[in-house]
Amino acid sequence: MNAGDVLPPLEIEITRTLIVAGALASRDYQDVHHDPEAARAKGSPDVFMNILTTNGLVGRYLTDTFGPQARIHKVAIRLGAPNHPGDTMVLRGTVEEVREDDTVVVRITGDNGIGRHVTGTVTCAVPGAAREGHGIGSVTVTLREDDPR
Amino acid sequence: MDDDGLHARLKAYEGRPAAVAGTGRDPVNAPMIRHWCEAMGDGNPAYTGPDAIAPPTMLQAWIMGGLGGHGGRAPAYEELLAVLDEAGCTAVVATDCEQEYVRPLRPGDEVAFDTVIESVSERKTTKLGTGHFVTTRTDVRVGPELVGTHRFRILKYAPARRRAAPPERRPRPVVNRDNAGFWEGVREHRLLLQRCASCAALRFPWLPGCQSCGCPEWDTVEASGEGTVFSYVVLHHPPFPAFEPPYAVVLVELAEGVRIVSDVVGMPYDKVRIGMPVRLEFRRYDDELTLPVFREVTA
């Protein structure tokens, strides 16, 4: 793996179910993540995904791409355009740095129909990453059956 | 209070605790991990089985108060939020999350945490509204061992007044003597077409004279309601009051051969297709407005 390598993108359909299931799985009961009327009263057109779900999806993107042996050490994300139901978010990543100890730093972005939902940096350990010839292409990407690709 | 005065008051909370000796509501456990993985669509085998670890990005879930509320919240943090509420910054949105995972969490781990208020920004104007960013840093421990750190930034803000705050009503149709008969039909849930009294050509929308022969005499025929999508456009921009883009505007060719501009309801804008069979129905938008719309005919 080398700096500059581009990870295969991951499309996530932003359904109402994903937003609510993610909020509840992260024990986030803020009404803006499950109650459209409450969300509108607070100036938002509809419910929107909570940051913990975005964080979880970023984590999934990295381990889907690098495989279960990858260990995530750091995730730093910043949110922008909210993920509302009916939208699609495309997560993309670029390898920024590969250290000798197999630490890989990846810059990630997630774009939806209204703009950039998330930018971030993930630091993870990917066994063998620093070895010559260990490319992203050699890693199996696991996608859910209902992914459009 | 002026902005500077408020900011000075807010700054005084920096370095003060937001949570002291908080404890996770539940030990790290397999069911919550499974619920998380199902929600995220995460099939990573590292999160199941006898040697399962919790997904690292789940860190914050273990310290969330949930519906029961935050037990370990310190008075300083409650005060800070109250000062912001008083200043009109009643809404909250998370903007940043930075986490470091020192070691994986495993089922059975009982987490404890301490949170400190790291910084409170000066007044910032964002798309959502004007407010202050509050950054906290949480150390998560299992016993004496630091297992992770969690820096979290929220924006406490006064929601910007949205232009479309009161729900806008759809535009009213312009009813005149040339089309009054059409709107009378709609009121009775009948879609009436004009038929030329001389050459029997059907026409829609309503016009004073026949497009084929110019004859001003006509009577009406009720449309059967069957049709197909002849064409459509998807409107993304600009937004109009009472319409939320993106939406499809559809030209339906009725079985009788004339075309009408309308909506296909009960279907996302991007599923509308040319040639799609549709059937007429009438939708009531408010006390005064009912419109003919169409719905896909499914086999």
Automatic annotation (TrEMBL), chain A:
<feature type="domain" description="MaoC-like">
    <location>
        <begin position="9"/>
        <end position="106"/>
    </location>
</feature>
<dbReference type="Pfam" id="PF01575">
    <property type="entry name" value="MaoC_dehydratas"/>
</dbReference>
<dbReference type="InterPro" id="IPR002539">
    <property type="entry name" value="MaoC-like_dom"/>
</dbReference>
<comment type="similarity">
    <text>Belongs to the enoyl-CoA hydratase/isomerase family.</text>
</comment>
<dbReference type="InterPro" id="IPR029069">
    <property type="entry name" value="HotDog_dom_sf"/>
</dbReference>
<protein>
    <submittedName>
        <fullName>Acyl dehydratase</fullName>
    </submittedName>
</protein>
From TrEMBL, chain B:
<dbReference type="InterPro" id="IPR012340">
    <property type="entry name" value="NA-bd_OB-fold"/>
</dbReference>
<feature type="domain" description="FAS1-like dehydratase">
    <location>
        <begin position="22"/>
        <end position="140"/>
    </location>
</feature>
<dbReference type="InterPro" id="IPR052513">
    <property type="entry name" value="Thioester_dehydratase-like"/>
</dbReference>
<dbReference type="Pfam" id="PF01796">
    <property type="entry name" value="OB_ChsH2_C"/>
</dbReference>
<dbReference type="Pfam" id="PF13452">
    <property type="entry name" value="FAS1_DH_region"/>
</dbReference>
<dbReference type="InterPro" id="IPR002878">
    <property type="entry name" value="ChsH2_C"/>
</dbReference>
<dbReference type="InterPro" id="IPR022002">
    <property type="entry name" value="ChsH2_Znr"/>
</dbReference>
<feature type="domain" description="ChsH2 rubredoxin-like zinc ribbon">
    <location>
        <begin position="183"/>
        <end position="214"/>
    </location>
</feature>
<dbReference type="InterPro" id="IPR039569">
    <property type="entry name" value="FAS1-like_DH_region"/>
</dbReference>
<feature type="domain" description="ChsH2 C-terminal OB-fold">
    <location>
        <begin position="221"/>
        <end position="283"/>
    </location>
</feature>
<dbReference type="Pfam" id="PF12172">
    <property type="entry name" value="zf-ChsH2"/>
</dbReference>
<dbReference type="InterPro" id="IPR029069">
    <property type="entry name" value="HotDog_dom_sf"/>
</dbReference>
<protein>
    <recommendedName>
        <fullName>DNA-binding protein</fullName>
    </recommendedName>
</protein>
